[in-house]
Amino acid sequence: MLQVTMAHLGGFESVKIQKTSEFEFSREYTLDMYKMASKITRGASDLVKGNFLATHLIPIYFALDHHYAGLDLAIMGEDMEADYVNEAESQLGFPVQATKLCEAIGYKGFASLLVPTILGMNGAKMGSQDAENLLEPFDTPKQVETKIKKSFCEPGNLKGNIALHLAKELLFPHFLGEKGLEIEGDPKHNEEAMQLVTYEDLEQAYASEKIFPTKLKAAVSKAVDAILAPVRTELAEQQKKLLADAFPVQKGGRKKK
Length: 257
Known about the structure:
This protein has helices at 2-9, 21-24, 27-37, 42-45, 53-56, 58-68, 94-104, 141-150, 162-174, 199-207, 213-234, 239-246; strands at residues 73-77, 111-115, 181-183, 194-196. By secondary structure, the protein is mainly alpha-helical. It folds into two domains: 1-115, Rossmann fold, CATH 3.40.50.620; 141-246, Tyrosyl-Transfer RNA Synthetase (Orthogonal Bundle). Residues 84-91 have low confidence and may be disordered.
C-alpha cells in the first residue's frame, strides 16, 4: 500500500522501503540493545509513558533502528518532541536523546527533522487505532465526507478547526498547487463561488464568516478524496486481502488484538 501511495503522490521514485525486521533479529542488534540499556536508568525510562517493559525499551528500538537503517536524517512528527529519555536533559526532547544513545555506544548520531502532526477527526493525532478518526485510501468518497463532516468546525472559529487544519498542513503545502481550494457557491442564498489560492486567504475568509462550515467541509472533503481516489482505484482488487492481513479475525468472528 505504501509503495502505491508514494507512486501516486510523486517525488518518491528514489525512495527505498526497508523493513526493520531485516536487522532487528540479528545477533549484533541484540548485543547493542544490551549495551544501550546500560545507558538508561530506570528513572529515565519511566519518563516514557506506559506500564509495560516493551514501552520502556522504545528509546532503544528507535535509536538502533535508525542506526542499522543507515540514516543520516530522521523525519518524524513533532509530537515525538514530547517524549523524553533522560530526565536531566529532558528539554532536548526524545529525538535528540535517541541520537545521544547511539553516540554513547560508539555509533554516529543522526539529525532529526520534526514535521507537523496531522490531527484526526476528533482533534487527537490521526492513527489507525480509531477508524472514525482516520482518513485512509480505502475510504469511499461518502466515508471521507462523513468523517470530515463530524469534525469540529465552528463558524468563524479558527481554533481546533479540523477542516482548516487539513487545509493548512496537508492540502495547500502539498496538493492544491496554483489553483488553490475551490469553495462552491449557492445561488439560492446569493453565495458566490470562491477560489482561494493560499491558506491565508482561506483563513481570513473563514474568520470573517464569508465561508460557512458546511461549505468548508465539503471543499476539504472533495480535495482529500481527489488525493485518495487513484490509490483506492489501484488497490481495489487487493483491498480484501490487505485488510484481512492487517486485521486478522479469529474463529468466532473476533479480531485478534
